[in-house]
Amino acid sequence: MRHTLSPLTAASSAGILAAIALAILLPAVPAATRPHYGGTLRVEMRESIATLDPPATGHGMAQLNGAFAIARWEAGGRAVYEADDNAAGGRPFLDAVEILMARPWREQSIDLELGKADLVELGPNELRRQPAGRKVWPSAPVRLVALVFGARVEDARIREALALAVDRAAIHNVLLQRQGEISGALLPQWLSGYAFLFATTPDTARARALVSALPASARTISLAVDDASDTAARTVADRIALNARDAGLIVSVAARAETADVRLVEARIASADPARALEDLALALHLAEPAHTDSPDTLYAAERALLADFRVVPLFHLPDVYGVNPLVRGGPGITPLGEWRFDGLWLEGGKP
User: Fold this and answer.
1) What does DSSP say about strands 135-149 and 119-121: parallel, antiparallel, or unpaired?
2) Helices (DSSP H) in 189-318: which residue ranges?
3) 3-state class of 337 per DSSP?
4) What are phi and psi of 137, to 5 degrees?
5) Which of 213, 224, 191, 153 is closest to 303 using CA atoms?
6) Is the CB of residue 212 less than 8 Å from the CB of residue 250?
7) What sign for the dihedral angle of Cα 307, 160, 180, 226?
8) Is the N or C terminus of the chain more exposed, i.e. has fewer CB atoms within 10 Å?
């Protein structure tokens, strides 16, 4: 018995065969369909990373991995990342990211103004000098600025006196241009919710009373900043030394941090989990491991215990602040934790 296909069935079969033929002849279409705008994002930073290999974790560069792949690495000077065509989220809009290291804040600001850079770090003074309307990307306050005492300062009265002498408000308003927050806590207010419970108001009278009970030889200590090239931190250290004088302490600002009695340091908050962030800070500042926490009350108690002996004196929580070239589109390319997210950025006029 002879069977014949109906016109509808025959048309369907022909369509299926045509689709199979096209699938064989045409190249595979990638799953990601992001448009390609092209261009190279020029980034500048103060830090100089002198390792033989690019950072794999814990740094903005490391956060480019996945969307970009390292193409050139000049330790301490320059890095170039190229767009990864097979990135899980789709190929980035940009062709590449070029990073210049070891660039002082002032030079970065000038390069941004002259159009030689697209994304730069801004210090307090540079932020003040930016023209009206400048695009700025800040993170949340994720940089803890604190005083850390060395083992030689054994008398807790000296440590407490210096903590009580520092006029955080004056430093914050004038030297830091009101960036970030004044704080007496390790964790910032936005993360813990209780930072306001830690005292930040100076008490010079109490500081003098503590110092007056000390022998004259114990009243002289040295203070240094961890990064000798950080002029903003050096200015803060100079002001702290003046505050200490009002309390009867003699604080000299030293050039070498490794020999100083107390250091002005920065530690970074890298987790949005407050318990994990407290553990990381304790480790970075060489404090004891905090007690286990399972509630805001126990977290607060654990942090207060870490600060009880004044070995570490928190002063401020500051944001990362980036100045952005007007040609940069998309973003912001900085997350609240200060992470780099450049895969969604592009440069105006870069589309081929």
Assistant:
1) unpaired
2) 189-192, 204-212, 231-246, 274-284, 296-307
3) coil
4) -115, 110
5) 191
6) no
7) negative
8) N
- β-strands 68-74, 78-83: how paired? antiparallel
Tokens of 281: 């800070």
Would you state the pLDDT for residue 35? 66
Q: Which H, E and C letters describe 132-172, residue by residue?
A: CCCEEEEEEEEEEEEEEECCCCCCHHHHHHHHHHCCHHHHH
Residue 21: what pLDDT? 45
Structure tokens at 329: 């589109």
Helix (H) or strand (E) holding 23: helix 7-25
Specify the amino acid at residue 188.
Answer: P
| Residue numbers of the chain with a pLDDT score lower than 50 | 1-32, 352
Contact in structure between 313 and 115 (CB atoms under 8 Å): no
The answer to whether the CB of 145 falls within 8 A of the CB of 318 is: yes
> Would you state the pLDDT for residue 31?
43
Residue 34 has what pLDDT? 62
The contacts of residue 85 (CB under 8 Å, 6+ apart) are 30, 91
Determine if the pTM surpasses 0.70: yes
Q: Which residue has the tokens 């050096």?
A: 234
Q: Quick count: other Cβ atoms within 10 Å of Cβ 286? A: 10
Q: Which residues pair with residue 323 across a beta bridge?
A: 120, 136
Give the model's pLDDT for residue 258. Answer: 86
User: Is there a contact between 76 and 102 (Cβ–Cβ < 8 Å)?
Assistant: yes
Strands 40-44 and 96-100: parallel
For residue 189, what is the DSSP state? H
What are the chain's domains?
A: 40-118+325-347 (3.40.190.10), 140-319 (3.10.105.10)
Q: Provide CB contacts within 8 A for 217, sequence distance 6+.
A: none
